[in-house]
Design a protein that fits this description.
Structural class: alpha+beta
Number of helices: 16
Low-confidence stretches: 1-11, 418-436, 438-455
Radius of gyration: 22 Å
Strand content: 5-15%
Distance between the termini: 28 Å
Shape: globular
Mean pLDDT: 87
């Protein structure tokens, strides 16, 4: 399809590129995918890439693929695209890479721990973890939003939920980020896939040792529950036990790091919206939803159609791989008025940042609660925060997760303590006389944007 520029009448350069300017391996695209995704949605919303992978970028098409059509994550013959599972170490047993009925069986084993009621019971633990992080941040002027808040909050909580020793966090943090690239077997370079394989083996060895140790002292944690199911013999195999343990650990905090980190960054890049949140902290719920829509941690998800599917004049063949571009769909002006505007009061906000259908993210309630507590708690505790740089520095993860987000406190922090996440916060952000500000570091820099910016 050739598209000519409305202004010049010349052939648009984007259509001469087989990736239409949206190559997932291009570092520039990874840092700022939104202009290219906008263009892709406009010129070829149903697009077949040079690798034979299809991409959907319109909201309506993405929702239809996720919720309404006969699709899965495996082909109709049961194979997983891009993965040779003939070797034991290559087998993919995590629920995320299974279709029903196996997916249903595995998901049901752990789903009770992620229901709204179960997540609500975790609020005191999340508030405690957030407060501990903010207490440490308050002792110094400069900090890293990722290392000091966005990572330790979900990582500590999922460790407590799984029954993984929190002291082991530094051992597996690097492994989990590298292991995520195993989900991109069809497009990732060989060296990246090799690192993902080695990270997966390291995680498997870690859980083999931990499970062997845990068998003698089972508790109420998720890992103990899965061990009991494995020992029953007909519910969970040993390899499935290892895979669920690894998968839940990764899913339990890797993408939530991105949600919190990207959310904090967007609020600091949009000072007018942050001012609205400061003046009415009860907006933290809708602000979290807008952070998910505007710059969520999962740009896309994969689906395999189990029959030929037509999108207008285009037919996506049965058993082909389809990238459902969540990041493009969530900025589709056909569904979201002023889609390129970051608006923390947006209502309704039917984003699909967590995917949809059978494989809807298991941890949606948990991730939202953690983000509300961490983001809302930080901006309540520290009335004045500045980014040290507007530049985005992505981490090692496959997902849209910042590696670092340096920031500086430029005003006195409030006293510790906050109400449970999701409840209205006090609007008085002025520190008491008894509070003392940390001394300003001679290395701190002020780089707070003076006007709204978008990435």
């Amino acid at each position: 399809m050739e598209v000519r520029s409305e202004e010049s009448g010349t052939l648009d350069g984007a259509t001469s590129d087989p990736w239409r300017g949206a190559n997932p391996l291009d570092p520039t695209f990874r840092l700022d995918p939104y202009p290219a995704l906008k263009r892709l949605r406009e010129i070829e919303p149903v697009h077949e890439t040079p690798l034979g992978i299809w991409r959907l970028s319109r909201y309506a098409d993405c929702v239809r693929m996720l919720r309404d059509l006969p699709v899965g994550v495996r082909r109709t013959d049961g194979s997983l695209p891009g993965v040779d599972e003939s070797k034991l170490e290559n087998q993919r047993n995590f629920m995320l890479q299974q279709d029903p009925p196996k997916h249903t069986r595995l998901r049901n084993l752990v789903s009770r721990a992620f229901t709204p009621r179960a997540v609500a019971a975790l609020e005191p633990a999340v508030d405690r973890i957030v407060t501990e992080c903010l207490d440490r941040i308050a002792t110094r002027r400069e900090f890293d939003v990722i290392a000091d808040l966005a990572l330790p909050v979900p990582a500590t909580l999922i460790c407590e939920m799984l029954g993984v020793p929190p002291g082991d966090r530094d051992r597996f943090t690097a492994w989990t980020a590298e292991a995520t690239h195993g989900l991109a077997a069809q497009v990732a370079p060989p060296d990246v896939l090799d690192r993902a394989r080695r990270a997966g083996l390291s995680l498997a060895a870690y859980f083999e040792d931990l499970i062997a140790e845990r068998r003698g002292s089972l508790g109420d944690d998720i890992l103990s529950g899965m061990i009991r199911a494995e020992e029953d013999g007909d519910t969970l195999s040993h390899q499935e036990l290892i895979s669920q343990s690894i998968g839940l650990l990764i899913a339990g905090f890797e993408t939530t790091i991105g949600l919190i980190g990207n959310g904090v960054r967007q609020l600091l890049l949009h000072p007018n919206e942050l001012a609205r949140l400061r003046s009415d902290p009860s907006l933290i719920e809708s602000a979290t939803e807008e952070c998910l829509r505007f710059d969520g941690p999962i740009p896309l998800t994969l689906r395999i159609p189990h029959e030929d599917i037509a999108f207008g004049e285009q037919v996506v063949p049965k058993d082909s791989t389809v990238m459902v571009l969540l990041a493009a769909a969530n900025r589709d002006p056909a569904r979201f008025p002023e889609a390129e505007r970051f608006d923390i009061t947006r209502d309704p906000n039917p984003h699909i940042a967590f995917g949809g259908g059978t494989h809807l993210c298991l941890g949606t309630h948990l991730a939202r609660m953690e983000a509300r507590a961490a983001i809302g708690g930080m901006f309540r505790r520290f009335p004045q925060i500045e980014l040290q740089s507007e530049a985005l520095e992505l981490g090692a993860s496959l997902f849209r997760v910042p590696g670092r987000l340096p920031a500086a406190i430029t005003g006195c922090p409030r006293a510790a303590g906050r109400p449970p996440s999701g409840r209205p916060l006090q609007t008085d952000l002025s520190p008491t006389r008894s509070q003392r500000c940390p001394k300003k570091s001679p290395h701190s820099r002020s780089a707070l944007p003076t006007k709204n910016s978008r990435i």
